[in-house]
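hey so i finaly got around to running the thing on Histidine ammonia-lyase from Pontibacillus chungwhensis BH030062. pasting the sequence first so u can double check i didnt mess up the copy paste, my clipboard has been acting weird all day
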Amino acid sequence: MIELTGSTLTLKDMRDICFHGERIQIAPESLENVKKSRAVVEKIVADGKTVYGINTGFGKFSDVRIHEKDVNTLQLHLIRSHACGVGEPFPKLVSKAMVVLRLNALLKGVSGVRPCLVERLRDMVNMDIIPVIPSQGSLGASGDLAPLSHLALVLVGEGEVYDGDDTKSTGEVYVEKGLEPLELKAKEGLALINGTQAMTAMGVLNYLKAERLIEQCDWIASMTLEGLEGIIDAFHPAIHEARGYPEQIQVAERIRAITNGSTLITRQGEKRVQDAYSLRCIPQVHGASRQSLAYIKEKLEIEMNAATDNPLILDDGATVVSGGNFHGQPIALAMDFMKIAVAELANISERRIERLVNPQLNDLPGFLSPDPGLQSGAMILQYTAASLVSENKTLAHPASVDSIPSSANQEDHVSMGTIGARHAYQIILNAEKVLAIELICALQALEYRGINKASKAIQELYQEAREEVASIKEDRVFARDIEALTGWLERASFEWELVRNDLFPNKG
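ok and heres what it spat out for the 3d tokens, dont ask me to read them lol
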């Protein structure tokens, strides 16, 4: 059971909740803070004070005063009118993360919602009532208005939720679960949709996938290094310490550890003086991507625990002030950074694939074919990798440099962070396929060289991967191999288990 406080949620917690079904509970002190902030809203309504979003219109309509008798209706109108997302729905895991993050933000006690609302969000997570949320339509400022409105619809018994691989109407599920729809009160609709939880939820899934991917890159690159009889001298610790980046030093250390004991690895001058950059510069490139992920992790964990709606109830209710915490620029920049970092992992992987299959660049059979000429072998695998890498280059164009004014120019600068997060997700999916292709080719190259000559760690990786895809004895439909290995990479653990106890007993 993971306790949500509004300020202590971590990416590990999100992994446990979203991927492993860990249940959540609300910290009692956080619920007390929710009650206190709600009392402030109710006093504002009773006293007839004019406060944005409580008894005014929204956006350009912020100067329109709403009569006390209509403040609840205002919130329902807000949700319905803003629920205009389009396109394919977010993955269910992202929608679940969105509910968790919105709940966690409300638990900071500065949003003015009722306890029953945060308790319903908790129950949605624990009872697996996950909204179907269209993925397109957010500008990433004024919050993720359209996506979060589709989330909020479920609270009032409208919209759709996931039912296994299918969907059901929320009303039908509420009847099955014995739940009643909520009636939104003053400010609650705005508190639900003014936030960055769509882009942040997508960013969380992106990070958790990219974190796994970057571990796999080092392992697969190590197998390629052995398959091409690469030069280990380029990974000498002093080289990387001379530059000083911890992540670069770490990657070089990992490559040395994974390939330790291999008789395929060569020394400088034995077969060639220097390797191509795609081999020699693995620590520099992989290390730089690791640096970017560290930055992204920091920004995500701040945003996961941030109050991003408007207005905020501060100083124990003494101050109710409008601001701009809903602006998604910090996450927009982080997602654009992620796009570039992961695209580069795929980029250098594709260059290693080329070195594995091109007979002009190695002494292996052309395109790793079992019968060059009659059989094409891995020729078109490289084409596919090149296509994915090229697509990534287009997707990596930063979304955050664009802005289109909205709400009659009241909201005249927006982040487009949710677009960046969605594109980052697609880049990660593409990169997984490129890594799968490199692994197929590296497996075949290693087989030609002699499995028994590889390091112990690479031999174990070879055996595990061969359970997913067979050796290339004859041309076949390689799309199935790519799909099989991509699926395996999404499940497999490539962390230090195979080598750390033997070679680095004091390191994790």
